[in-house]
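Narrative of activities, Objective 1.

The group set out to show that a structural description can be obtained from nothing but a protein's sequence at a throughput compatible with the screening campaign. Below is one input-output pair from the validation batch, recorded exactly as produced.
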Amino acid sequence: MTDEVLDHESRRRLLEVARRAIGACLAGQPLPKPVDLPGVTARGGAFVTLKRRGSHELRACVGYLEAGLPAVETVSRAAAGACRDERFAPMGPAELAELRIEISLLGPLRPIAPEDVQVGVHGLLLRSRGRSGLLLPQVPVEHGWDRQTFLDHTCLKAGLPPGSWRAPKAELLGFTAVVFGEE
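Output recorded for this entry:
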């Protein structure tokens, strides 16, 4: 995602695209054909996060770091993937109404020094020892983490011990994201 600013209507329509894609996936139907959203010209990575309404319990989170497709298509594919997130119990069609959708349109990945990581601004991708872990910018805010805890949890997400971000061969990449969701 570039520095493109999305207006309220563009965000609403992207959320609609995601909800339709999830509905199609849960009904065993093909993804709806991508629609043209004139206010959305960006290409790049996107993640779709699903949470239960009320409890805010995480139900799924799937995305693409660098899809190279129009954002509307990346969001549609990520949403369909989220309804099949294997880390969680399978979803059924009746569950769709209980889900709150959040979209994160990612900026480019760039090397970042640990001391430059800003909680609530940067998402992180850590690559080390053949493993990788990614956390979106909103995750440390939701959990009340400081920078060190955020870095350590990115290691844990990669299946590595806390502090692995300090290893000489560890690659730490940061990104920003435009994050919005259903109320």
